[in-house]
Every structure is written in C-alpha cells, then in structure tokens.
C-alpha cells in the first residue's frame, strides 16, 4: 500500500470519522468487531469495538508511516538525541499532527479516537523519538481552547503542518509534582512581561519553536496557584536560552531539555488566556494528558507481549495477556468517556497509574523471558524496557495519581 495515496484522502476520512463518532459510541455496544485479546495478535487491525472501518484504513496508513519513516531512523536519532525536523513535516503532510484540533482553527478536524491511533501506532513501532503527542494533544489544546484569535492564527496552522514544534514548560529543578514551588516569574514592564527563571525535563525543548511557559505573575497572590500565568514564548526570543539535551536512561531519540529565561521580554499578546488563571487551565488539560500516557502504556505493553510470544513460558504469558486485556478494556472505556467529555480527574488518574505500572511490570517480565538477550539493545524489548520507565514519572508521578484517587475516597 502506498500511504502517500492516503494522504490525499486523509481529510475526507477525518470528516467521515467525525460524523460517525457519535454513532461509534452507540454502535460499539452492538458491534461485531472482536476485541484485540480475542484476536490472534493484539496488534491486529480491525479489532476494538470503539473503532470503525474508517479508523482501520487510517491505522494502516499510520502503521506504514512509522514502519517506513520512523523505525529505520530510530537508532540514528537516538545517537543525535532528537529526530529530524523533516519527520515533523512529513507527519504534518499526512495529517498526523493536531488531528483533533478543529479544522476552522487550522487543525485537522478529527476526534480524539482518531488521534489515539497515532499514539498507539507509535507505541506498536516501539518508537519513543517523535514528541508528537506533547505537541498535538498537550500543547495545541491550550491554543485551541484559550488562545486569542491572533495566537490561533499565528501558531495552529504551522503546528498542524509540522513547521512549528510546540512544547510546554512547567517543571523546574525545584518544582515537579508540586507546582506551588515554581520560581520562574513574569514581571509586568509597561505593556510587556519580562520572564526570568529556569525549566527542566522539557519534551521537545531543544527542537521547539514555541514553548508554553508557566510563570508566577502575581507573587502577592494568596497562593502560587492563584498567581500563575501561561506565556507563549518563541524560541527565537533572545531572552530564551536552550540548555543541553539531557541524557536519559531511555527515550533517547526524544529531545528533553533545560530552558533558561534571562530577562526574556514578551509582549502582552504572548499571555495565553487570562492573567493569573494558568493553574486552572493546567488542571483542565491534565485528564487528557494522563489518558494519552495510558493509551501509550497499554499499546506498548501489547507490543512487548507480541515481541515475547515466541518465548513459550505458557503460564507467564497467560498472566501478561490477562493483565493487558483488562487494561485495554478500561482504557478503551476511558477513550469513550473522553469522547463524551466525561473523563474526570480521578478516572484519568486511575488509568494513568494502573496502566503505566502494568506496562512496567510487563516490560520487566518480557525482558526476563528473553533471557540474556533481553539485556541487549539489539533486541527491541531492551529499548522498550528503558523507554517504559518514564511513563510512571511524567504527567504527574504515580504516587501523585494515588493521592488524587484517594481524595475521591476520602473527600
Ligand atoms: C522523559 C521526561 C519528560 C518530561 N517532559 C516534561 C515536559 O514536557 N514538561 C514539563 O513541564 N515536565 C516534564 N517532565 C517532568 C515531569 O513531569 C516531572 O519529572 C514529574 O512531575 C515529577 O517531578 P520531579 O521530577 O520534580 O519529582 P518530585 O516531585 O521531586 O518527586 C520525587 C518523588 O517524590 C514523590 N512525591 C512527590 N510529592 C509527593 C506527594 N505529595 N505524595 C507522595 N509522593 C510524592 C514522587 O512521586 C517521586 O517519587 C518530564 C519528565 C521526564 C522524565
């Protein structure tokens, strides 16, 4: 199959899928489609009651993209600590970026179910290089939801085409789990803001063209959370310095950087949303961010299971398959809830915590079943194991997820 042929019809496909998405949600109760754990392989196309035939056609195209454009380059990119810019342009051309951003804003205009296919296929390709999910489904939603018309026009079409790469900078050396510790500040100076501070662990931080920067704008607010603002800082701003690409245990082809703000002057038009509302905006986006991590977690576990099938330790594989089947069912349900705008903070936390812990259990067991080869980088399971490790850390650590879940039990 020539996937470039599909690129021409991607937008027609998106429209069709968008129209059928409600139908999908109703039909899934009566669908004749099998679940992946009822199929020969978790990776079989044509399974999952939450999807339809149009999704399968799209999935074939995305699978081919990762097979042809990503897999052969992953080692090269791992050495470079980043992917090529050209990859972003190719993904943009095929309509794989900003998939669920409304078409009238310059996005691709499909829905989150469609977007989840790209996340899953990247995991099935055992690829952690491209930072597409952060760009398309963490950064772009802020612009679509709270961006001014000028900000939307300036960034969204370029982000959909892959010309503009986006990142989001919350974490600092002294503020990760607890954003109350944020020191980066934005001081008003005439009609401008002047940002000073430091961020760390920023995905796409080295390659980004724009970074949503979380900064304290009212140091006198009753708590840090009440005085936080979000700012769109362009990478060519002379006050923004990119640090080195951080050397990580895994996910080596994905760039993760420090960022330094030294009297970084931005106009008032760079403020994203309203003054001091940043914390509220961040909280609104977190369930989706955690769902993305779960979607990747389950798909990656499915990939690892398939890689390990040939090591016929029957009961161990039975245990692994059962764990994945349970996670798959729960996450598909979360995807439907999210499509209906019903995914709440607690449910997203349950999904994030449980699926990423499961992914790491599966990774550990699959390495074990490979024997010594499991420790050799030439075997995909080895990279899968180290890549999986970050999943329980970012997006809120799993300890924080348990804290959130316990708040629903002990309000
Ligand atoms: C590969 C990677 C990519 C990342 N990408 C980004 C990005 O793009 N943008 C961004 O802003 N950040 C990013 N991060 C940062 C990530 O979100 C943080 O690392 C994470 O939130 C944890 O914060 P921390 O590292 O400061 O750890 P800490 O908050 O210092 O936590 C240390 C330990 O203490 C535990 N802990 C902390 N508070 C509590 C509590 N209240 N109860 C129980 N246990 C607690 C934690 O669970 C953890 O085990 C990334 C991180 C990694 C590893």
TrEMBL record:
Provide the Acyl-CoA dehydrogenase/oxidase N-terminal domain boundaries.
53-163
The region annotated as signal peptide is: none
Q: Where is the Acyl-CoA dehydrogenase/oxidase C-terminal domain?
A: 276-409
MF GO annotations: flavin adenine dinucleotide binding; long-chain fatty acyl-CoA dehydrogenase activity
Cellular component annotations (GO), alphabetically ordered: mitochondrion
| UniProt keywords, alphabetically | FAD, Flavoprotein, Oxidoreductase
Q: Which cofactor does it need?
A: FAD
The UniProt record lists the keyword Oxidoreductase: yes
Q: What sequence ranges are listed for the domain Acyl-CoA oxidase/dehydrogenase middle?
A: 167-264
User: Which is one Pfam family of this protein?
Assistant: Acyl-CoA_dh_M
- Organism superkingdom: Eukaryota
PROSITE patterns in the record, alphabetically? ACYL_COA_DH_1, ACYL_COA_DH_2
Q: Name one GO biological process term.
A: fatty acid beta-oxidation using acyl-CoA dehydrogenase
State the family it belongs to: Belongs to the acyl-CoA dehydrogenase family.
Q: What is this protein called?
A: Long-chain-acyl-CoA dehydrogenase
Q: What is the species of this protein?
A: Strigamia maritima (European centipede)
């Amino acid at each position: 199959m020539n996937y470039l042929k599909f690129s021409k019809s991607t937008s027609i496909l998106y429209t069709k899928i968008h129209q059928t998405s409600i139908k999908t949600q109703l039909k899934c109760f009566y669908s004749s489609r099998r679940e992946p754990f009822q199929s020969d392989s978790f990776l079989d196309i044509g399974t999952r009651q939450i999807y339809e035939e149009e999704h399968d056609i799209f999935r074939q195209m995305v699978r081919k993209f990762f097979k042809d454009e990503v897999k052969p380059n992953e080692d090269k990119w791992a050495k470079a600590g980043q992917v090529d810019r050209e990859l972003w342009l190719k993904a943009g051309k095929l309509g794989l970026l900003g998939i669920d951003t409304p078409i009238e804003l310059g996005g691709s205009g499909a829905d989150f179910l469609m977007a989840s296919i790209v996340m899953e296929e990247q995991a099935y390709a055992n690829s952690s290089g491209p930072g597409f999910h952060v760009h398309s489904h963490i950064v772009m939603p802020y612009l679509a939801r709270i961006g001014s018309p000028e900000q939307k026009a300036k960034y969204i079409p370029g982000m959909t085409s892959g010309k503009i790469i986006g990142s989001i900078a919350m974490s600092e050396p002294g503020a990760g789990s607890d954003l109350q510790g944020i020191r980066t500040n934005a001081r008003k100076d005439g009609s401008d803001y002047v940002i000073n501070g430091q961020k760390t662990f920023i995905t796409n931080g080295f390659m980004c063209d724009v970074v949503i920067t979380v900064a304290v704008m009212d140091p006198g607010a009753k708590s840090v959370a009440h005085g936080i603002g979000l700012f769109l800082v362009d990478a060519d701003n002379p006050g923004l310095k990119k640090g080195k690409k951080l050397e990580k245990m895994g996910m080596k082809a994905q760039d993760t950087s420090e960022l330094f703000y030294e009297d970084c002057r931005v106009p008032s038009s760079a403020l994203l949303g309203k003054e001091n509302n940043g914390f509220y905006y961040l909280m609104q986006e977190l369930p989706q961010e955690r769902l993305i991590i779960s979607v990747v977690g389950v798909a990656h576990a499915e990939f690892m299971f398939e890689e390990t099938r040939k090591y016929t330790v029957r009961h161990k594989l039975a245990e692994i398959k059962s764990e994945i089947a349970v996670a798959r069912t729960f996450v598909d349900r979360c995807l439907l809830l999210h499509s209906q705008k019903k995914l709440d903070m607690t449910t997203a936390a349950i999904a994030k915590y449980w699926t990423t812990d499961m992914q790491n259990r599966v990774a550990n067991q699959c390495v074990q079943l490979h024997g010594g080869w499991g420790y050799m980088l030439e075997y995909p399971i080895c990279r899968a194991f180290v890549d999986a490790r970050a999943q329980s850390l970012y997006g809120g650590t799993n300890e924080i997820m348990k804290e959130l879940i316990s708040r629903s039990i002990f309000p």
